[in-house]
Specification:
Layout (H helix, E strand, L loop, with lengths): L1 H114 L1 H10 L3 H74 L2 H27 L5 H12 L11 E4 L2 E4 L5 E4 L2 E4 L5 E3 L4 E9 L3 E7 L4 E11 L6 E2 L4 E5 L9 E8 L3 E3 L7
Antiparallel strand pairs: 1-4, 2-3, 4-11, 5-10, 6-7, 6-9, 7-8, 8-10, 8-11, 11-12
């Protein structure tokens, strides 16, 4: 009997263990399922954050281009108004000339009427020869014909000028309408950018957003460094070597590309999550839409829009010395342009932009050596 009891107890314990094991397996599977759901949710948030960030950057880029287009349109409208003003002056002069000739003709006709036709005969009889008479008659005909031709030419000129003025006015009205439409589009883009900004503020939490920023920074840095290396491989002309010597001699004396405060130093930077990355230059916070100036004379050798850096401009100062200007909202130079030290090459954005009113600035020598710009600026 005791053995039977022991057997039943052992069987019972085995059943209990199997049941407990089954419960544990069920709990474990539930945890695994929850982990998978969390991972999927996290992945969705990361993708959404990345998409929103790229949309915001694309909006920033489009707004910069739109602003540049608006500036060009406003300049065209001013030039059109100047042309209309000059046309009005020319038209007034033509009308005055026409009226002067009209008065002259009227005066001549009145004089002829007062003298009467008998005076003409008296003049003819007093002439000493028939040849003189013919010359006098021919002269009178030429005066009349010249008056008619001048009046006709002035009428045609007045008509042409009026048509030109009307065309300019029509073109001015058309451009004004386009400017209003473009301005409205720019406002819509600004609102769209602000919407994306609010969504990003909601989504941008935790390490994922910081890692995303770092990834884009590293990609931008790699793109810049790759371009510098390519530039360093170019053959250097003797004049460029001398330019490099002049640039090197200005160490510690270069003017700042934009006035402001350095908010990110050169070198190894650590985030609040203790994630490190290397900053190849410095970031300077300045007032909204400040002009960015070349720190030294040189040639524009690279202009490109890079995700994470916006519009980037690189200048070659000779001797394999280069300066890089990033986060530009607008660029005012083109590849191949020679710029002087202090010349405006672009503009940074406003405080509501993705990078704020900040300029990223780097100084390179060759394809591998980057300097702390603060040691070069006065």
């Amino acid at each position: 009997m005791g053995k039977i009891f022991q057997i039943w107890m052992g069987f019972f314990l085995i059943l209990s263990a199997v049941e407990a094991f089954g419960q544990k397996e069920g709990n474990l599977e539930k945890v695994r399922s929850e982990i998978k759901e969390l991972e999927a949710e996290l992945k969705t948030k990361e993708n959404r954050l990345k998409t929103l960030t790229e949309q915001r950057e694309d909006a920033d880029r489009e707004i910069g281009l739109k602003r540049k287009h608006l500036l060009i349109m406003e300049q065209e409208i001013r030039e059109n108004q100047n042309r209309i003003g000059k046309t009005e002056i020319e038209l007034q002069k033509t009308v005055q000339s026409y009226r002067s000739i009209q008065k002259l003709v009227a005066k001549r006709l009145v004089s002829m009427y007062k003298r009467g036709r008998i005076s003409d005969w008296e003049i003819l009889f007093n002439l000493s020869s028939w040849n003189q008479a013919k010359i006098w008659l021919k002269y009178q005909e030429r005066i009349v014909e010249n008056d008619r031709r001048n009046l006709r030419l002035l009428e045609e000129k007045e008509k042409t000028i009026q048509e030109h003025r009307d065309r300019l006015s029509s073109e001015g009205r058309r451009k004004q309408i386009l400017l209003q439409e473009e301005s409205k589009e720019a406002e819509n883009l600004e609102e769209k950018k602000m919407d994306r900004g609010r969504l990003i503020s909601t989504e941008q939490q935790g390490i994922q957003s910081i890692q995303e920023k770092l990834r884009r920074k590293r990609q931008a840095q790699e793109a810049i460094q790759d371009r510098v290396r390519q530039a360093a491989k170019r053959k250097v002309a003797p004049t460029q070597d001398s330019g490099g010597e002049l640039f090197a001699a200005r160490k510690g004396k270069l003017d700042w590309p934009v006035q402001g405060k350095v908010i990110t130093k050169h070198g190894l930077i650590r985030t609040e999550l203790n994630i490190g990355f290397e900053n190849l230059g410095i970031d300077i916070e300045s007032s909204e839409e400040s002009s960015v100036r070349a720190v030294f004379s040189g040639e524009v050798i690279w202009i490109e829009w890079i995700r994470g850096q916006g519009n980037v401009v690189m200048l070659d100062h000779g001797g394999k010395y280069y300066t890089v200007y990033g986060h530009l909202d607008m660029v005012f130079v083109e590849n191949g342009n020679h710029v002087n030290g202090g010349e405006v090459i672009g503009r940074i954005g406003d405080r509501n932009g993705l990078n704020g009113s900040t300029l990223h600035f780097e100084i390179w020598n060759g394809g591998e050596t980057h300097f702390d710009p603060e040691g070069w600026l006065r």
